[in-house]
Amino acid sequence: MKFNIILSILLIGIVSCNNDETIITVSTSDVLVTMDENPIINQEIGAVQGTTNEGSVVFSIVSQTPANAFGLNAVTGKLTVLDETLFDFEVNPEIIGVVEVSNGRISELSKITITLNDIEEDVFHGDVILTTQEEINAFGANNYKIIDGNFTIDEDQAIHNIVFSDKLSTITTINGVFTIKNMFNWLDVPGFENITSVGGIVISDNWGILDIHSLLNITTITGSITITNNGDLGSLCGIRPLLQSGNFTGTYTVSGNFYNPSQQDIIDGNCDGF
Questions:
Q1: Measured between alpha carbons, how far is 119 from 75 in angstroms, rounded to an integer?
Q2: Gap between the Cα atoms of 106 and 54, Å rounded
Q3: I need a surface site. Which of 84, 158, 234, 271 has the fewest CB within 10 A?
Q4: Would the CA dihedral through 238, 252, 165, 258 be positive or negative?
Q5: What is the per-residue burial (b if ≥16 Cβ within 10 Å, else e) of 188-221?
């Protein structure tokens, strides 16, 4: 009888101990992110969520494609750009991975899906002002086709080092005003033969420019034409196709140049005063 009582007490104790043990649980969810291509390194992408009913969780990368595209904070679950060159829509429109959220031996998996937006890489949004040859070279290296703003070349008067503009030859459209001023070394306006549409034209206060023949392909303009105070400019035949096209309805201002033909003079072919 005494033995049975002791055995019963032991069994109750064992059951009681088992009931006191907490079953560890971990929960997480998949991460779906849409972002623009060409981010900067260490840019935050999002975060993996992870919770547990006891203690804390640790985050670790199980896999990702392409490899080493994103980084992960093991404590917070924050995802960041590790290799920005891999976030290229044309190469990797989607980046995927798997992250483990664990508490000891208990873990759950979170699937990471990063979808990239295709950005117009050949469009520059905003105004541009270039004052030196170095600035022209650096901007031209981006191979922009469209300038969604004003585009100005205004030479630094303390340096006068702008000689070449061929780096800008990819530009076809300037939605704002196209301005060239204070140039010292140019005899013409080189490198802009591919421009077909502008919001306006301003050519002023230049030394040495004799003609503007590289503007021959501009046939669309939404604003005005101002060509003033270019003492050596004797040929305006470069804007003849534009005036002949009938697409110009803005204000025509030509004065202070070597030759100052009227709008009708240019249309009639009297565009060269040399």
A1: 33
A2: 11
A3: 158
A4: positive
A5: bbebbeebebbbbbbbbbbeebbbbbbbbebbeb
Cis peptide before 66 (omega within 30 of 0): yes
Q: Strand 78-81 vs strand 70-72: parallel, antiparallel, or unpaired?
A: antiparallel
For the entire predicted model, the pTM comes to: 0.63
- DSSP E strand boundaries for the chain: 26-28, 31-36, 44-47, 50-52, 58-65, 70-72, 78-81, 94-103, 106-117, 123-125, 128-130, 146-148, 151-154, 173-181, 197-204, 220-221, 225-228, 252-255
Q: For 234, which DSSP code?
A: -
* CATH top class, domain 24-117: mainly beta
CB 153 within 8 A of CB 162: yes
Class of CATH domain 123-267: alpha beta
Residue for token pair 């802009």: 192
Looking at residue 212, its amino acid is I
Q: Is the bond preceding 261 in cis, omega lying within 30 degrees of 0?
A: no
pLDDT in the model for residue 155:
96
pLDDT at 16: 45
From the first residue on, what is the mean pLDDT of each consecutive set of 10 residues in the chain (274 residues)?
49 48 93 93 95 96 97 97 94 97 96 93 93 95 94 94 93 98 91 96 96 96 98 97 94 98 97 94
Q: What pLDDT does 120 receive?
A: 78
